[in-house]
Amino acid sequence: MNSQAIEDYLKAIYKLQVRDSTVLTSVLASYLQVSPSAATGMIKKMAASNLVRHRPYQGVELTAPGEKIALEVIRHHRLVELYLTEALGVPWDKVHDEAEKWEHVLSEDLEDRIDAFLGYPKSDPHGAPIPDRDGKISDRDVCTLSELSTGDKAVIIEVCDEDAEILRYLGEAHLYPRTEVQVTSVTPFDELMTIRIDLGNYISSELVVGQKITTRILVKLLSLDKSPTA
């Protein structure tokens, strides 16, 4: 089996399992942009190697060995993204595709050197958690921006890194991790959300965003007794 293809499948299953504990073959195929038959064939091969558990018509889930490989690849990917941003100044909307190439070939020695150089970071440029050396990720109390209601205040924790165009838009709007936002209104039918963005120094801006944006931003609710964003 192609080891890079296996790693891509395992990483995809891990990410999809965050939403659903069992991943349907059709969902996995769509995510990886392959045919359902190709996905089924690869799943059967991985199941034979004890990397996944597969129940026909019920989906697939990672075994412990499969999850370990997935987390190692994710660790490589996110460390490389941060290294490219911090050390080389690569814009955050360009590092994902570059990291996709590096994640499969990064040696353990270089991985450790990058980790130390960056000061043992906990998250990548987009706020996604970086698994530690043992493959552990801390639990986070987060929800999507789309789940908030009028009046809710939150801090951005993570943004989806897989769409460069959306990342450029978010950057232009200053919707970075650690930015505070407040929902000022939500339209009742199309769920367009108006948010106030804290730009610092008592400066703020307002932006109207749809679900294509709000579902791609993870936030942590803030206490309502905190001073309102200016």
Describe what you observe in this structure:
The protein has helices spanning 3-17, 25-32, 36-48, 64-86, 95-102, 108-117, 164-172, 211-214; strands at residues 52-55, 59-62, 143-144, 153-159, 180-186, 193-200, 203-209, 217-221. With 230 residues, the protein is α+β, with helices and mostly antiparallel strands. The chain folds into 3 domains: 3-62, Arc Repressor Mutant, subunit A; 71-139, Iron dependent repressor, metal binding and dimerisation domain (Diphtheria Toxin Repressor, domain 2, Orthogonal Bundle); 143-221, Ferrous iron transport protein A (FeoA) (SH3 type barrels, Roll). The strands form 2 sheets. It has a 6-stranded antiparallel β-sheet with strand order 3-8-4-5-6-7. The chain has a two-stranded antiparallel ribbon with strand order 1-2. β6 and β7 form a beta hairpin. α1 packs across α2 (25-32), α2 (25-32) crosses α3 (36-48) and α4 (64-86) packs across α5. The model is unreliable at 226-230 (pLDDT under 50).
What is the H/E string?
HHHEEHHHEEHEEEHE
Assigned CATH class of the largest domain: Mainly Beta
CATH topology of the largest domain: SH3 type barrels
Distance between the termini: 56 Å
Question: How many helix segments?
Answer: 8
For the record, the count of structural domains works out to 3
